[in-house]
Design brief:
- 2 copies of one chain form a homodimer.
- By secondary structure, chain A is mainly alpha-helical.
- The first copy, chain A, has 2 domains: about 55 residues, Homeodomain-like (Arc Repressor Mutant, subunit A, Orthogonal Bundle), CATH 1.10.10; about 170 residues, Tetracycline Repressor, domain 2, CATH 1.10.357.
- Chain A is built from 10 helices and no strands.
- Chain B binds a DNA duplex through α1 and α3.
DNA sequence: GAACCGAATGAGCAACCCTCATTATTTCTG
DNA sequence: CAGAAATAATGAGGGTTGCTCATTCGGTTC
């Protein structure tokens, strides 16, 4: 019996898998609007009505696809980040991974925006939550270790980090120049450094002022 | 005759204005999908078929609304930027203006994304072109004047600038904390500074020069 | 094998964008 | 100014598409 119920559950899971998989393909190929429920059903080898047994409506099916995509991304990012030690390197690794994946899979990334923009739901992207948390973790650890300034505005940095990357990818795809990737990463890290480790330059200048002042005192003494 | 044709043109222009205006309101209130062409026609005091005499389809009408919004933004930004002198201040002014306007009118801003994301047109946002050019102009002028490093990667900076702001606004709206606005602006400018005025090396060299000069003075004195 | 129950089906409905034959309005002409 | 010609506007109807629901199917139990 346990075996039989399990088989039954597995059957349902398989069907759901087939549906999501077919939906993913269709949405990817044709976008949210152009992908028809009838096509998805056909591709999944299922009657149209069956879709509605597994997902409330088209949008819910769409959301399932997007959610799964973000889960994949999160897993990949976790692995990459775990491979290096210092928070600074982790940040660089996360940036590189994210940029690459967004570039490779822009279409799907785009779709995740359609989901939240398109229909006026203000419900935030819970999909992204886990992904963003990786970033937060790196920053927090960096602050704890003393690598980063304790006043670092984590939330704002997050926006800087991901916002810049999304726009950079969009620019690259538009202009067709994907070779700017290293330059973009370098700039992003330089910018975050500017916020994470501030006030290095002023201190240096200050240092020079103090030294010159000291010399001036010597001069004044000698000239006396 | 000239008068009559003018009157005719004006009449057509008026009707178009009424349509776009009604569409703007509807799209703003209900979003791209939920706003029905029938409703827009009714709101504009026009038959549904008439809409299609002025705009090819729903998307074209939508595009007209978005374009007009960006024209407004561009005009406002130009004015604000012209009011201050140094490129650095202009950048700050542009940032503040942009952030404020995106915050105030997020819904419409959102819609401009639906336009380009939603239907799989890779055609870039010509709407934004003029707006972005304001930013480019500031940077170029700054480089010419010597305020900014000549190696400044303008295109990437653009992505940093606008990407960060969009994400920041989204965060603020999500968390309901709009009081972070000054902090967000400060961080953004600090980050751009980090990229625009790198030259840590030159400063260091300068520092050494100054120290050596000071020492030389001491030496000269002692040798006297 | 009969009764039961959840899963699956697909014809049909309602909503919506868009077209086009028809009607109204303006412009032109003699 | 009358009537013809051209242009603008209309809205009923066509074609899609997302979704529902009465019906059928497949398997489990007694």
């Amino acid at each position: 019996m346990t075996v039989r119920t399990k088989t039954k559950r597995e059957k349902l899971a398989e069907r759901e898998e087939a549906i999501v998989s077919a939906a993913r393909k269709m949405f990817h190929e044709r976008g949210m609007q152009a992908a028809k429920m009838a096509d998805i059903a056909a591709a999944a080898g299922v009657a149209e009505g069956t879709l509605y047994l597994y997902f409330k409506n088209k949008e819910a099916l769409f959301a399932a696809v997007v959610t799964r995509h973000w889960e994949d991304l999160t897993e990949g990012a976790s692995r990459v980040v775990a491979e290096v030690d210092t928070p600074r390197d982790q940040l660089a690794a996360l940036a590189q991974f994210t940029l690459r994946r967004i570039l490779d899979d822009w279409k799907l990334f785009e779709l995740s925006f359609v989901l939240h923009y398109g229909s006026g739901d203000t419900s935030d992207a819970t999909d992204k939550r886990a992904y963003v948390r990786i970033f937060d973790g790196i920053i927090e650890r960096g602050i704890d270790r003393g690598d980063f300034s304790p006043e670092a505005p984590v939330r704002l940095l997050r926006d800087l980090f991901f916002g810049t990357m999304e726009y950079a990818v969009r620019s690259m795809l538009r202009s067709g120049k994907q070779d700017d990737e290293p330059a973009a990463l370098a700039m992003l890290l330089k910018a975050t450094d500017g916020v994470l480790m501030p006030t290095a330059e002023p201190q240096k200048a200050d240092l020079a002022d103090r030294l010159e002042a000291a010399v001036a005192r010597l001069e004044a003494m000698s000239n006396r």
